[in-house]
Amino acid sequence: MSSVSVTVSAFGLWQMVLGTKRQQVEANGHTVGDLIATLNKMASGKLEGEIIGDDGRLDPKFKIFVNGRESVTLTTQLTDGDDVVLFGVIDGG
What is the C-alpha separation between 88 and 78, in angstroms, rounded? Predict the structure, then answer.
């Protein structure tokens, strides 16, 4: 499987788990789902169960933007040089 190099900016839970705010990531594949799997490995499995729901979809409490556009599915394609922003939606009262 080929890979893609993207810049990842992380906020909230993403930043705490990944331990960094911004970094270059070599994702093992070409989709947002592949990037999440790569980040999960980098975080020693700490993203598993937090970000992806039991149905295999991105939990709605978390948002991913690729080049300024929201990625609503894990099948969104990535290309070298893409800018990916990860953050959690603030909720509560």
Answer: 21
Correct CATH for 4-88 of 3.10.20.30, 3.60.21.10, 1.10.287.500, 2.40.110.10? 3.10.20.30
- Token pair belonging to 92: 């509560």
pTM above 0.85, yes or no: yes
Q: Which of 12, 93, 6, 4 is nearest to 50 (CA)?
A: 12
Cβ neighbours of residue 17 closer than 8 Å, sequence gap 6 or more: 43, 46, 47, 50
Give the pLDDT confidence of 55-67 residue by residue, as tens digits: 878 888 889 999 9
